[in-house]
Amino acid sequence: MKRAIPWQAVVFLLPALLIYSVFSAFPLLDTLRLGLFATDETGAQHFAGLANFKLLLLDPQWSDGFWNAMWNNLKFFGIHMLVQNPIGLLLATLLSVRGLKWARTYRTLIFLPTLLSVVIVGFIWQLILSPLWGVGERLMDWVGLAEHFQPWLGEESSALITLSLISVWQFIGVPMMLIYAALLAVPEEVIDAAVVEGASSWRIFWEIKLPLIYPTLGLVTILTFVGNFNAFDLIYSVKGALAGPNYSTDILGSYFYRTFFGYQSQIGSPTMGAAVATMMFLVILCGVAIYFYAVQRKLQRYAL
Amino acid sequence: MQRRNQTLLAMLLAGAWGAAQAGTVTIESWRVDDKTLWEDVLIPAFQKRNPGITVKFSPTTPTEYDSSLTARLTGGTAGDLITCRPFDKSLDLFKKGHLEKLDGKPGMEHFPAAAKVAWQTDDGKDAYCMPMASVMHGFLYNKKIFKELNLTPPNTVDEFFKVLGTIKQTGKITPLALGTNDQWETNQIVFTGIGPNYWHGETGRKALIAGQAKFTDPQFVAALEQMSKWTPYLGKGFSSQTYADSQNLFAMGRAAIFPTGSWEIAYFNQNAKFEFGAFPPPVQKAGDKCYISDHTDIGMGVNPKSKNKDDAYKFLAWVGSQEFADLYTNKVTGFFSLSNHLIAVKDPVAKQMLDWRKRCESTIRLNAQVLNRGEPNMETELWTVGSQVLNGKLAPKDAAGRLQSGFAKWYKPQQKS
Questions:
Q1: Residue where a domain stops, chosen among B352, B375, B400
Q2: Structural domain for B130, as ranges
Q3: Which one of B99, B176, B181 makes the best mutation probe of the A interface by having the most chain A beta carbons within 10 Å?
Q4: Contact B64/B28 with Cβ under 8 angstroms?
Q5: In whole angstroms, what is the distance from residue A71 CA to residue A250 CA?
Q6: Is the separation of the CB atoms in A244 and B183 below 8 Å?
Q7: Which of A32, A193, A245, B290 has the least C-beta neighbours within 10 A?
Q8: What count of CB pairs under 8 Å joins A to B?
Q9: Strand duo B81-84 + B24-29: pairing
Q10: Does residue B218 lie in a domain region?
Q11: Could you tell me if B271 and B211 lie in one domain?
Q12: Domains delineated in chain A
């Protein structure tokens, strides 16, 4: 029997497919293509094969900056994984405690910074932490810690950590909401059965609730990963495109920006920029692939 | 395909940028700060003489200007008149065919040869931008604080540090309003501001270009050494202090001295409630000849792809006129017209700075010519290295070594042993 072509499906899918191809798939493919070209003195582009990538990965002039940005990006991601997501889990768990008063208010307040523009958040924190105008030092003085105050955003050793924590503060609402929703979806009967069996609430959390929300935790991880490796705005609004001091806050996003658009007297190079963008794409692709093959597939067993 | 990409990029960069229309002349510039002056003073003055021509001043922030302008020029969406950076940046645009030849165009005859150098080909045969103005580097100081502490503006380096020491002892006032967050000040203001007294201005600069001097020579290391001695006199948390923070500190009277340039005079005339004066970079020993960074900073050229070249040239001719020179010098205080018209400078501090030209020798920012032509980019290197020296993370000697090795990597005259 010959199946008729499902025309209605084609018609309904077409607009989305068209928009997706034009604004997402085509630019991506074109970026990958552009990465294989080089710009010469006159500004003309010609095919250069993998020359850009060779420069980027092997020539110290490019690779030092690239690997520094990559390493900083890993640290940026690491801090989010170690601080943002566990605290998000903790907050969600506390919020889902039955009979908690003001739960909605807490939820809204914690989620509020996520709604703010990153640029505003950047400037607010820059002001708070400014040794000149900031309230940070005074607040620390009230609890007797004034002498521990440092210009955290200005020191090589602490600038990246400070920026990561600002980002954590802003985006903690996302994992919290996702995990919270997952926790609410845990079937009551399962919990009730465990209570009847005499399990402590500690055990219920570790052995029932947590395994049941693993898919959500996996999703949060991959969202954090993609978000962090595409991050740029916070660094740019607080430290500018040079990501100082001495490139200590430079991540792939800011490195890409300087390469592609140029900064101050450094003229942007679309071809080199496309090569950096391709590398970023590959890193994210690898991360997502690992997630799909190693994590997502295993988690299927737990899905209800 | 390629053209479309670049156009797309240019449009993205320019936002909702419309192509120039006939009858309208659009000026590309990085002087965001002067936007109102252009719109309220300069453009109306031009339009009074040339009715029917609409002029639009459309600046991009200084740090983004070079790259976004290049993108717009390549994509064909740039304005009719291009504000030119001095030396290499504009020369590069000219070589790529993005600037018209201006030899013999009306207005050009009003400029002395020295002023034109910044916008000529290396052999001096072709000019591509009309010189507009220069800025001068130096120190602004709060006269009230100086009077209270019984201080006089220093002449020598020793006096300079003595003054800084006295101010620091008060414990309340920051001696120097300077931060390293934005980085550019450490090169454009500090290193090439105080340095010419060590490398004797043009002599030292030309020696670097000729390959006869190295950054590791004592005259260049000494400038970095003086910088490293500034650190104790900077404000608390200076490593996260932006240029705007420094401006505010000085304007509020919380800092005594602001290492900067003449372009700040207008800002402090508006924002500072105290009287301020200026002094040039201190010399090593009393009686030494002084050198100042008197930087030919702004010129103006014509976009060959302009749809309204006639009007653009009319505007350019006006930029070369006495009226413009007078308006620019006295309204955009701190930018000194480069034309040879006689102009009475009204602002006292601007006049004070301009008078330095009589007793000191002028030079331009060290790396403005030739030195920026390779990779690693000298300007970026100087920003990073200078900030590191001020932050106390890099010894002056090592800083000089890093500059020299980066320079020798691409510059042939520096490669012979």
A1: B352
A2: 24-135+295-352
A3: B181
A4: no
A5: 9
A6: yes
A7: A193
A8: 114
A9: parallel
A10: yes
A11: yes
A12: 47-303 (1.10.3720.10)
By the 8 A CB rule, do B5 and A273 touch?
A: no
Reduced to 3 states (helix: H, G, I; strand: E, B; else coil), residue A46 is: strand
Residue B1 confidence (pLDDT): 40
Q: Give CA–CA dist B274/A156, Å, rounded.
A: 36
Query: Would you say residue B108 lies in a domain?
Result: yes
What distance in Å separates the CA atoms of residue B299 and residue A65, rounded to the nearest whole number?
Answer: 34
Average pLDDT over chain A, rounded to whole? 89
User: What's the domain count of chain B?
Assistant: 2
Indicate the burial class of B350 (C-beta count within 10 angstroms; 0-12, 13-18, 19 or more): buried
Looking at residue B344, which CATH number applies to its domain? 3.40.190.10
Separation of alpha carbons A232 and A252, rounded Å? 8
For residue B29, the cross-strand partners are B59
Residue for token pair 């692709």:
A285
Percentage of the residues of chain B whose pLDDT score is greater than 70: 94
- Residue B186 contacts A where some CB pair is shorter than 8 Å: no
CA separation for the pair B132, B338 (Å, rounded)? 6
User: Residue B344 pLDDT > 90, yes or no?
Assistant: no
Find the closest chain B residue to A44 by CA distance: B2
Residues 6+ apart with CB under 8 A from B364: B86, B87, B118, B205, B293, B294, B295, B296
The DSSP letter of residue B201 is T
C-alpha to C-alpha distance for B248 and B254, rounded to whole angstroms: 9
Nearest to B2 among A45, A150, A152 (CB): A45
**What is the ipTM score, two decimals?**
0.82
Distance to chain B for A240, nearest Cα, Å: 8
Residues of B in contact with A245 (CB under 8 A): 180-181, 239, 387-388, 391, 393
- Is the separation of the CB atoms in B381 and B184 below 8 Å? no
**One domain, residues B250 and B161:** yes
Residues B81-97 have pLDDT tens digits of: 999 999 888 998 998 88
Point out which residues pair with B362 in neighbouring strands. Answer: B292
pLDDT in tens, B376-392: 889 999 999 999 999 99
The 3-state DSSP class for residue B363 equals strand
- DSSP for B235-289? PTTGGG--HHHHHHHHHTTSEEEEEEEGGGHHHHHHH-SS-EEEEPPPBSSTTPP
With 0.95 as the threshold, say if the pTM is over it: no
